Amino acid sequence: MSTSDEKDLVARCREGQDDAWRELVDRFGHKVYAIAYHFTLRREDAEELSQEIFLKLFENLHRYDGGFPLVAWILSVSRNLCIDRYRRRKREKSFRFVSDEAVTAMLPSDDDPANAALRKERTRMLFTALADVPEDLAEILILRDLNGLAYDEIGKALALPEGTVKSRLFRARAEVARRIRERHEGGGAPGAFASIAMAAAGLV
Amino acid sequence: MSCGELERLFVSGAPESEARAHRAACADCGRLGADLDRCADTWSRLKAPVPGPSLREALLAIPSLTVTCPQADALIAARIEGEIADADERRLRNHFSRCAACAAAAETLETARGLSAPEPPAWLATRLAAARPPSRKPFWRSAFSGKMVVAYAYAAAVLVMVLGLNPTAVVRKAGFASLGESTRTVVLVAQSSIGDRLGAFQERAVRTLAVWKGHVGGYGRAAVSNAIAILWRPESKKTPVRPPLGKEGGAASLSLEIRLAGRDGAEPFPARFRV
What we know:
The complex is a heterodimer of chains A (about 200) and B (about 280).
Chain A: H1 3-14, H2 18-40, H3 43-59, H4 70-91, H5 100-104, H6 113-131, H7 135-146, H8 151-158, H9 162-185, H10 192-201
Helix pairs in contact in A: 1-2, 2-3, 2-4, 3-4, 4-8, 6-9, 6-10, 7-9, 8-9
Chain B: H1 5-12, H2 16-25, H3 27-45, H4 53-60, H5 69-80, H6 86-96, H7 100-116, H8 122-131, H9 139-143, H10 146-162, H11 167-173, H12 181-231, E1 255-260, E2 269-274
Antiparallel strand pairs in B: 1-2
């Protein structure tokens, strides 16, 4: 969908056309929910955040001028909401605890139970490490590696040059990898669970 | 600890082969590269979480829950005029809870509207009542007071007389013949009453005029005789000159004649002072 088509879609939404708003929801609803989920890691919170994002999106439709891709504009409009939620979650004691339920929602079904458990543990470790990464790095990793946004979309959404986006992304990836390795190497004599987790992460 | 070359290559968008070559040459970057590959593999295997079925319905209902900022402008105006529907009021309030700019605009406009019709302080009514001048009857009430109505009636009668109109003919021309019996009786009574009053007024007027005429005549005659007396006054007798003080001894008044000289030797002029 070209930028002019997206601009037309937004214009029709602004005029109050129900079918246009439905098209917007169907086109971007899942993506917005996925982003919200990766920031909150809780289904209820993600759905609530998605509604807040679309409410804000609707109220600010008149601000979209077609200058850049609609998804980037949606991100720019909703970024503060996502960061607020992320910080709110970070203040919770259970922030570093990633539940089975949170991980399962992101894992494809696997017929092999052992393989599924391994993958689940590896994913949990990644998200736990990501929780320790500064939020300006973490948000770029979430947008790029978990949601597949293009560098220019992220740059426009966050008002950053593409070089800065790439630099932060590299540092975010390196930080996650370093923290997983440090946890393994500095853990002394890890218990059986930790050993399995390190093996699952592919780091030992 | 990586040497930083991997990051530089990544940011510059260098081909993957260059990064591989550097990882093979640099032990730290080789280890970091391997960790990055494992993490990337894990991320890539994740699927996008799927929302529950109720989310789509909730998102589709959003236009009925709130308004855009331009729509809010129109609704704020309607709200100030008290012409907003309940549903729109709810949408507007919902919008205010998230849009500080619109909430502030609405508050400012409502405050400005309150300023145009301020509530008077409690003491003002008392002060105004104390400072109020004594009430006067309105102009139209004094113009139709009892005295004035009588004056109008007399003025109308005089006008009729001056114009040489016959009151009976006037009444007849005004459609008297077409009136009902009772109405005609009332008009006749009024007509006779006015006739009586006119007669009395005429009598008084004649008397008053006669008095004025007598006064004017008397005053006039007196004025004419006075004027003649002044104009035709006989030649006055020579007034005797009083002798100078001291020559005849004793005087009722002292008269001094002082001769003053002009400043530059001009002809002196007399000045008489009576003490």
